[in-house]
Amino acid sequence: MKFCSDLEADFRKVSNRELAIPMENYMKNNFTYFGIKTENRRSIFKSNYELNKLEVKSNFKAIAWELFQMKEREFHQTAIDLLLKEFKKNFVLEDIQLIEKMIITNSWWDSVDTIAKYILGGYLLQFPSETLKVIERFSNSENMWLNRSAILFQLSYKEKTNFEILKSECEKHKDSNEFFIQKAIGWALRDYSRFNPNGVEAYVNSTNLKPLSRKEALRLL
Questions:
Q1: What is the domain-level CATH number for residue 39?
Q2: Mean pLDDT, to the nearest integer, of 196-202?
Q3: Three-state SS for 72?
Q4: DSSP-derived secondary structure letter, 28
Q5: What's the whole-model pTM score?
Q6: What domain count does the chain have?
């Protein structure tokens, strides 16, 4: 698509290997980078969006998926920015298929956490009747990033968080030796402790969380 080819051309013009190396190191060399800082990347995205607005608005899901399968991490970041811009509260039921594909493709904490909090979380706010079905499937998956997403999807819900679902997810995964799962449990509980400190403290003290999860959960208390 023209948007993707134009974006790639502009990214290549400003690629900077000196900046790319520390970015790649920070991500444990899981991804290749052009070496474009966030502000510049988003400026390039914005200008190409305006130039190709009709194409993008008509095909933003296909474009996002095309970008997400490309090599450099800046493409994946732009795909997420595009979905955040276009989805808002305009999901359709079938969008869970794209959301799941993006969670399990080129997975790392930076992409998964944003998708889980804002895109998966937003989808389930729009379709609350789908919550238990989707979260159970993600939670029971052998894919760790789907498990993490099931724990974190309510991060944007604040005081509207369903504490029973959160506790259920924590209980299901509390014995995991996976760092990203232990950290997610602690993060989700810590975030909710801003709205229900007594509930979170009582839960943490009544269950046997891993030390990392417990430490993170009680950080604000």
A1: 1.25.10.90
A2: 98
A3: strand
A4: T
A5: 0.96
A6: 1
77 inside domain:
yes
Residue burial 133-163, b: 16+ Cβ < 10 Å; e: rest: ebbeebbebeebbbbbbbbbbbbbbeeebee
Count Cα atoms within 13 angstroms, Cβ side, for 30: 12
- Residue 65 domain boundaries: 1-87
Structure-block tokens of residue 209: 């969380």
- Tell me how long the chain is: 221
Q: Do the Cβ atoms of 64 and 79 come closer than 8 Å?
A: yes
Q: Which residue(s) pair with 32 in the sheet?
A: 72
Q: Is residue 15 part of a domain?
A: yes
pLDDT digits (tens, 9 = 90+) for 126-147: 999 999 999 999 999 999 999 9
Question: Is the separation of the CB atoms in 59 and 98 below 8 Å?
Answer: no
Q: CB neighbours of 121 closer than 8 A, spacing ≥ 6? A: 153, 154, 155, 156, 157
168 part of a folded domain: no
Separation of alpha carbons 187 and 62, rounded Å: 32
